[in-house]
Amino acid sequence: MGEQRYRWKGSELREQAAVIEGKQSPTKVLVNATYLHSYFREWVKGNIWIHGDRIVYAGERLPDRVDEACEIVDCRGYVLVPGYIEPHVHPFQLYNPHSFARYAAARGTTTLVNDNLFFLLHLNDDEALLFLQQMNALPTSVYWWCRFDGQTELEREDEQLSNARIKRWLDQETVLQGGELTSWPRLVSGDDIVLYWMQEAKRRRRKIEGHFPGASEKTLVKMALFGADGDHEAMTGKEVRTRLWHGYTVTLRHSSIRPDLPVLLEEMKALGIRHYDKCLLTTDGSPPSFYEGGVIDWLIRIAIEHGVPVIDAYAMATLNAARHYGIEHLHGSIATGRIAHINFLRSAHDPTPVQVLAKGEWVKRDGEAPIPWTAPAWEQFGIRPLSLLWELGWDDLQFSMPMGLRMENAVILKPYSVSIDTSRDRLGHDHDESFLVLLDRNGRWHVNTMLKGFSSALGGLASSYSNTGDLVLIGKHKEDMLLAFRRMKEIGGGLVLAENGEIVFELPLPLGGMMSALEMESLIDKEKEFVRLLRERGYRFEDPVYSLFFLQSTHLPYVRITQRGIYDVMHKTVLFPSIMR
Questions:
Q1: CA gap 379, 199 in Å, rounded
Q2: Which residues touch 314 (CB under 8 Å, ≥6 apart)?
Q3: I need a surface site. Which of 45, 88, 551, 560 has the fewest CB within 10 A?
Q4: What's the start-to-end Cα distance of the chain, in Å?
């Protein structure tokens, strides 16, 4: 599928040059601006000329020609910084790529580097790449990763992650990296397919993003030799130091299940780390309500509060990320030739902008609501509500497996021996064991076991939101589980809670059963209600949304429920296979 060959056509470049020559007016001029000069690392005063979506000049001069149509913006009272870059986005955590981009832009994060896992598992490439083209038309700049694994055991892995697909994605201009490498243990153990894809990515000048939680120094060194450029899984200052020592770019994470940034910064300081030019910032694709505090603006604020020099804090969110991904000529600074992503702040110590320019257009004005964006026509990309042409019955809710999954925290699962009577239709509320079912979305197979630690009083939960888009049922009461499933089916996918024969909550996810069509502000309220209801029924960990998503994720220890059955992550074996219906 074709892409625009050049960021600006020759005729557009001639127009931009004509602005400098005084033969044509710019479209905007920001006068009396105090702005961050990312290369001199200081605050300077000047004027910024914008033509269309590009900064054509930043310095002391004013343009020789200014037409009536040119917007003059007096920047006195503001401090200007480049638009922020979020380098590690999972854009399908109940929200969708469009709604998250809009929400992030209003908070100053105008460039996103997104995961493509949803597209690999649910769309054909023509549909997915057409969607990428449509996203290029947004006011924000949207880039992508290319995954090398499905983060779980897949039935059709050879088809969904074929050589042809990986290469086609890596060839896309907006794909900046391969990864994240959740399958790195396979690579270390001798898997040459992943190594080949890494080499193909490097040949195309793409970065490789690691996913190396708890990795030893020896493993980090080997992965660097294989081609890894960066990693976001450092959980201590010492782990940050080891990665920096061996040349990694280290993305410092602050997310719903790993709110690590304050600890990382304090421990880095204690270790004598004073240079941050190889550090980036990420929220790591957290659920909607996490973003009430902001997006990358929030992380800059944390960095400043924990003693990072102000200019370094902004560099981690702008220039460092642009330089790492090889897009410095377009992003990361307020300088000649860059895309006009500019945040207007009231103070350098307050990184949440009051006004935002993205590609030279206002996406937020002082005192006004964020400007709405036209939603995509989702169906043209193959993204539509679930249509389940099969029924779920009592025979599908038979439980006899002797081993269940025990939650150690929101995402870590260990095996345990089931000792309660699972032949009953209702379980008691005096313990925290629940029925757990993973159902093929096409109705071909299921995996039935027990889940300990999720809830002590949940009637029935049905979710089409999962790592693979297969269906998850959890509950104490089989009747409520069936009711929740039927309602989830009626609304075309979503999260549904049932209790005592009634629906007590539903969040439709009409975009492939994984994503909401709501704007973030409304979605945040719905997710908070969902979390509240689960906590009232005994959920006690950080994040139930991630708990649902990671039930299948084999990059985490120790056991998982997958399309192939109950899977032992540490020994890479299927303990109990899925059962055909």
A1: 35
A2: 36, 38, 81, 82, 300, 351
A3: 45
A4: 39
Answer yes or no: are the C-beta atoms of 484 and 461 closer than 8 Å.
Answer: yes
Query: Residue 147 and residue 154: Cα distance in Å, rounded?
Result: 14
The alpha carbon of residue 42 and the mean position of all alpha carbons in its chain are separated, in whole angstroms, by 32
421/454 Cα distance (integer angstroms): 18
Residue 229 phi/psi, 5° resolution?
A: -105, -30
Within 40-162, residue ranges assigned H as helices are: 97-106, 117-122, 125-135, 157-160
**Helix, strand, or coil here: 155?**
coil
Per-residue model confidence as pLDDT tens digits over 485-514: 999 999 999 999 999 999 999 999 999 999
- pLDDT digits over 10-68, tens only? 999 999 999 999 999 999 999 999 999 999 999 999 999 999 999 999 999 999 999 99
d(CA 314, CA 141): 18
Longest dimension (CA), the chain: 84
Structure tokens at 129: 């790449």
Sheet holding 230-231, edge to edge: 84-89, 109-114, 141-146, 175-181, 207-210, 230-231, 249-253, 279-282
Angle at alpha carbon of residue 40, lines to 39 and 41, rounded to 5° = 85
| Cα–Cα distance for residue pair 161/150, rounded to 1 Å | 8
Supply the pTM of this predicted model.
0.97
